[in-house]
Amino acid sequence: MWVALVRLSALGDIVHTWPLALSLKEARPSLRLAWIVEARLAPLVSHHPAVDTTIAVNTKKWRHRLWSPRTLREIRDVRRGLLDLGAQLCIDPQGVAKSAFMTLMSHAPRRAGLARPWRRETLAGLAYTEVLQVTANHPHVIRTNLEFLRCVGAGPPPEPPAPDGRWLLSTSQAAPPSLPPPGSYAVIFPTAGHPSKAIPPEILAQVAAAIVKRGLPVLAGWGPGERELASQVAGRAGPGVKVAPPTTIMDLVRMVDGAKLVIGGDTGPVHLAASLGTPTVSVFIATDPRRNRPLGDAVEVVATVPDSGGAPSGSASVRPGPPPDIADVLAAVRKLNVLP
After folding, report:
1. CATH number of 168-336
2. Model pTM greater than 0.90?
C-alpha cells in the first residue's frame, strides 16, 4: 500500500516530521511511503531511509504565476504523478491550504488531517475524509505528528523521539573547501523564519564575541536574503567572527555537522544541527519551547516567553517575551562543555 505524506516545508518542520516517517514504516513495514515536499527542500527527504519516493512541488512559484503555461504544466505533471502513485492513504500533518490542496490532488480514498486546534488552518479540513483528535497531553509537535500512526492501526508512543538526521551525512558531498576544518568553529544564526523569533543582533554579537574569547572562531550563518544581517552581527562582534560562505541545503548540513557549537533561535538550521548531534543552544523568544524545542542529548534551551500553559495549538507562536539575557545564553553554552 502506498501512503502519501504531505509536509511541504519548512526546514525545521520537516525535521520534526522525520520520526513520523520512520514510525509509519516500523508500524507497517510493507507500506511504501511517498513524501510530497517543496523542491528546494527535497534533499532533506529524498534519501531518507523510510521514504520510497519523493514528489517535489513549487507551490510558492505556482502562487505567483498561477496561470503561466509552465506552472500549469508543472501542476499537471504532479497530478499525473500522484494519480500514477495510487496512494490509498494521504496524511497531512501541515494542515494549511497548500498542503490540503496537495492532499486533494493525491486522490487517495482516505485523506487524514488533524482536528482544530492542532490543525493550523480551519479550511484545510475540507480536504480530509478523516480528522484526528490528539489524545496525548504531551505538547511537542513531534508527538502530535505521531497521532497519524492511528491511520495504519498503530498507536503513538507516549514520548516523542528525537529526530535523527545522521542519514544525511551518507548522502551529502564533502564539506565545501570554504569551511574551516570540522570541530574548529561555532555557528550562530542571526535570522529565523519570522523576525520575532530571531535573537536580537546586538545580543548575538556579544555572545559570539565571548565565544571567540574562549578560543573558538564563529561563523554567522545566513540564507536567501539574510546575508546583510549576518554581516552586521559579524561586524559588531569583531575579530574572530566571520560571515559564513553561501550554502546549499546539503552544504548547510555539512556546516552544522562540522561545528563544535550551534546557537540560534527557533529556526530550521538549529533543529537540523540538533538532529545531527551537534551541541546546540536554541533561544525561544516568540514561540513555545514545549511544542517546538529541539530534542536531543546535546541541546540546551533558553526561553523568555511567558508560560502558555501547554494549550494545544497548530502553531508554536505565543506572546513574545523580552530579549534573552546574555548571561543566560552563555550559561547554556557552558552546560554543553564544548568551549576550550
Report:
1. 3.40.50.2000
2. yes
